[in-house]
Automatic annotation (TrEMBL):
Source superkingdom: Bacteria
Reaction(s) catalysed by this chain's protein: Cleavage of hydrophobic, N-terminal signal or leader sequences from secreted and periplasmic proteins
Source organism (scientific name): Lysobacter zhanggongensis
Name of this protein: Signal peptidase I
Membrane topology: Multi-pass membrane protein
GO molecular function, one term: signal peptidase activity
Gene: lepB
Transmembrane regions listed in the UniProt entry: 51-70
Entry keyword set: Hydrolase, Membrane, Protease, Transmembrane, Transmembrane helix
Gene3D superfamilies: Umud Fragment, subunit A
InterPro entries, per the entry: LexA/Signal_pep-like_sf, Pept_S26A_signal_pept_1, Pept_S26A_signal_pept_1_CS, Pept_S26A_signal_pept_1_Lys-AS, Pept_S26A_signal_pept_1_Ser-AS, Peptidase_S26
Pfam families per record: Peptidase_S26
Length: 261
């Protein structure tokens, strides 16, 4: 959706410049020409700019600095988030950032372990992805035999039984649903313990300064830091906090208003 952000910024700037130019120069010229043969009506581009500039400005400010809507496009965050969930992302949780460039100009906070974050992955800088923060700067993170270890301490798990998927998530039916006791943020994950091949996502990593280690809650169906590396802090877009709609083969009203844990 980066194209939408670029278009929104450009349209806001263009309509704003026209509005300001009319207020400072063009309107005075029209007033001075009243009573002459010249047409003293507002040009169409001034009329449109005056109508759309306030709306575009409000949308740009809200979307860039307050909250931005996103749609979940894949199953990588099941069971926490499902394909078709429409979520809201807090854009000021980790600092205020400029539209398009994503450069931070006000430092407010930093991700906590367990936060669900939206970001631009280093290998796909034009896309917005969503994962969970597992490792903070300086942490030693390991993942072996479907178990996360943080700084040498294995994370505990509580089984909730066999998962039953629906709609686009039907492929995960039969996986084991567990509560992962991540320090400070217990949350649900999906695991398949009977896969017939060696998990290529196993390993141990030390998170460098200014970076984070992120993973999807659907552990066997997530392209995350286990495969492409660490998430730079400057690539963060915000913190996911609310599901405001679910549409995947129909509307699921039970998910509307659900907070993201």
């Amino acid at each position: 959706m980066r194209w939408f952000e670029i278009a929104l910024v450009v349209l806001t700037l263009v309509t704003g410049v026209v509005w300001l130019l009319d207020r400072l120069v063009l309107a005075k010229r029209r007033t001075a020409s009243q009573g002459l043969l010249d047409d003293d009506g507002e040009p169409w581009y001034v009329d449109y700019s005056k109508a759309f500039f306030p709306v575009l400005l409000v949308v740009l400010v809200l979307r860039s600095f307050i909250a931005e809507p996103f749609r979940i496009p894949s199953n990588s965050m099941m069971p926490t988030l499902l394909t078709g969930d429409f979520i809201l992302v807090n854009k000021f949780a980790y600092g205020l950032r400029m539209p398009i460039t994503n450069d931070k100009f006000v430092d407010i906070g930093a991700p906590a372990r367990g936060d669900v974050v939206v970001f631009r992955p280093p290998h796909h800088p034009d896309q917005d992805w969503i994962k969970r923060v597992i490792g903070l700067p300086g942490d030693r993170v390991a993942y072996f035999d479907n178990q996360v270890h943080v700084n040498g301490v294995p994370v505990g798990y509580e089984s909730l039984g066999t998962y039953q998927g629906i709609d686009s998530g039907i492929e995960m039916t039969g996986a084991e649903e567990l509560v992962e006791q991540l320090p400070g943020r217990p949350h649900r994950v999906l695991e398949r313990s009977s896969l017939p091949f060696l998990d290529p996502g196993q390993g141990e990593w030390v998170v460098p300064a200014g970076h984070y280690f992120v993973m999807g809650d659907n552990r066997d169906n997530s392209e995350d830091s286990r495969y492409w590396g660490f998430l730079p802090e400057q690539n963060l877009r915000g913190k996911a906090f609310l599901i405001w709609m679910h549409l995947d083969g129909g509307v699921d009203f039970s998910r509307i208003g659900e907070s993201i844990q």
